[in-house]
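Incident review: delayed structure delivery

Summary: a single-chain prediction request sat in the queue longer than the usual turnaround. Root cause was a stuck worker, restarted by the on-call engineer. No data loss occurred. The affected request and its eventual output are reproduced below so the record is complete for anyone auditing the incident later.

Affected input:
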Amino acid sequence: MRKIFAAAMLLGLMTQTNAQVPEIKLAKQFSMGYLQLNVMERDKLIEKHAKIFGIPEVKVSWLTFNGPAAVNEALLSETIDIGSGGVPALLLLWSKTKGTPQEVRGITALSSQPFLLNSRDPNIKTIKDFKDSDKIAVPAIKVSVQAITLQMAAAKAFGAKDFTRLDTLTVSLSPPDATIALIGGKTEITAAFSVPPFQYQQLENPGIHTVLNSYEVMDGPHSFTVAWTTAKFRDKNPALYKALVAALNEATDIVNKDKAAAGRLWIEDSKSKLAPDMVAKIVAGPQVTWTTTPEATMKYADFMTAVGSIKTKPSSWKDFFFPEVHDLKGS
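Output delivered after worker restart:
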């Protein structure tokens, strides 16, 4: 009887100990905009920095989503703790949750790089050439960074009041599926506003050309991917949050020190069949910067406020990023 009691006590203590192990669940998406996350997973950087900040053990989980809507739903339901994606998705959630315990803000940026609107129709040379019968694939309609950037391009081309003119042409497709549809030419998809490396894979095929570069819409470089979380998670896990930020910073340094190696890691992680040389060229592209500094994020905020996509206009990019990055020269 004593042995049974002792075993039960031991089991209880083990369960209690396991329950005390902190956990962090992170999201990533289908693109090469998240190389730091690949590095963090491989090198166990969160676990490494957690120990430095006094957390001997932490459970780290990685989940992959298609599109920002799925990421944000998972964050609000606490299925994940850390979201990542384009700036508009962060702004939408920040505006929705501002002033609540679940208020969402950015942690750091991940990269500044362009995404390309490619088409297989030779008659489509600018966005003014799209017909009602055309379909443009984006990762998520209305909320993805590609969808919002297309609205910004439409506002420039057709006038501010017609910013939604191309919305009816957009359909939600994951970048891999959009690439297959565009290259195959057997579906209604005539264009794709995609992500690296898929946008470059599309251009390897004869007849596919670029209609629009997002840097043209934004009048220069802009953040492509950023990471975000809730104030609730940050407040409840101050040491773990510091470890996360430190891990993101170290991972960014690792990517910049050997971009070819970071590209190979992405290939391994995503099980891609792309040639390492091609991926390395993309990672080190002349318009690509791997940085934690937010860039041109207020341009998205100003546009989304003007068209009513978000109800609260931030006075600065620091309004929707947590203080740990406020010393950076963001915009």
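Verification: The chain has a mean pLDDT of 92.
Action items: add queue-age alerting; document worker restart procedure.
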